[in-house]
Amino acid sequence: MLWLVGLGGSLGAGARYWLGKVLMTRSSRDFPVSTWLMNTSGSFLLGLFFDFYLTGQMSESLWLFAGAGFCGAFTTFSTFGYETVKLLVANRVGIAIFYVAVSVLAGACAALLGFWV
Question: What pLDDT does 29 receive?
Fold first, then answer.
């Protein structure tokens, strides 16, 4: 089972890197849009996959691959933390507080929406 998580994780990390590069060229430097979008969309997918798993529409193997692996690597708490600290060090306290608030709220709402869909 560990190899399923690793394979899903490698695909999630690759997708995150590629999408991050695409979004960075099209977003503002004031707000970490790319990380916010990836974390929010990954939370939605994780909520969706969790519902599929709980209702028997997704096998445990696929859940490990897609949920723990892909979504676990596609979303990133460490980058979220780093970007928050970076905003604070740059004395962008208001943006940092806003970033934390909308990230947590959007992530939870997206996961719940994915679960309900």
Answer: 72
Q: Which two tokens stand for residue 17?
A: 């890197």
- Which conformational region is residue 28 in: left (phi greater than 0), alpha (psi within -120 to 50 degrees), or beta? beta
Give the C-alpha separation, 65 to 62, whole Å.
Answer: 5
Examine the pLDDT at 27 and tell me if it is beyond 80.
no
- Closest by alpha carbon to 41, among 105, 101, 110? 110
Q: Which residue type is seen at 100?
A: V
Distances (CA, A) of 46 to 19, 57, 83, 92, 108: 18, 14, 22, 31, 11
Question: Cα separation of 33 and 23, whole Å?
Answer: 8
Q: Extract the tokens encoding 91.
A: 């004395």
What pTM does this model have?
0.90
Rounded to whole angstroms, how far apart are CA atoms 52 and 35? 25
What is the rounded end-to-end Cα distance, in angstroms, of the chain? 27
